[in-house]
Amino acid sequence: MASETSDRAVLEAFADVLDYPRGPLAETVAACEALAAASPEAVALLAGFRAFVESAELGELQEAYTRAFDLDSMSDLEPTCYPYVGHVLFDDNHKRSAFLVGLNERYRAHGFSAGTELPDHLVVLLRFAAACDDGALARELLDEAIVPALGRMVGKVDVEGMPETGRERYQLVLRALWLALETRQRPASAGSEANELVLSRNGRD
Questions:
Q1: Spans of all domains in the chain
Q2: Model confidence over 100-115: pLDDT tens digits?
Q3: DSSP E strands: which ranges in the chain?
Q4: What are 111-131's pLDDT values in tens digits?
Q5: In angstroms, how far apart are the furthest CA atoms of the chain?
Q6: Right CATH number for 4-202 from 1.10.3480, 2.30.30, 1.20.58, 1.10.10?
Q7: Residue pair 141/129 in contact by the 8 Å Cβ criterion
């Protein structure tokens, strides 16, 4: 991804694909593939997901999403892939609480609303990073929060071979997003506001 404009478009496209499905997704996924062209591996993973959504009914898509992100697997071998960046990074402790408070403050400052979701939901963070007019803050969120969280999320389920479960199918998208963000250009950032937001990630209280 060579420009800030393309960065924003890719983030918004992945947010659309990873949002709870309320209608057909094939065209949305195809658009995301086109925008993620800088990473051929990401495109291939998205194409695999599109093959599923092209033949799936809406109810099947919604069930796959629920199995991917909402149902507790109760398994150490295949742990639940919660879509909350703060939970993935910090578990549910005081550091996540501070992260949520910091996110809400930044959202208000930039006129952004998380709607009915928690502020650290991956889709919410992607939409904020895409809409934020502070490029340094957006890049810091990507580099210090979203990418590290995705690195842990994509490592939870093996998606080699033919995905069969809803969790495995959405893992294709998460892995594609991780690859797309890892291959983007990264201008130097001096985002003090963002650094303050992710202080706890560096071990500070």
A1: 4-202
A2: 999 999 999 999 999 9
A3: none
A4: 999 999 999 999 999 999 999
A5: 49
A6: 1.10.3480
A7: yes
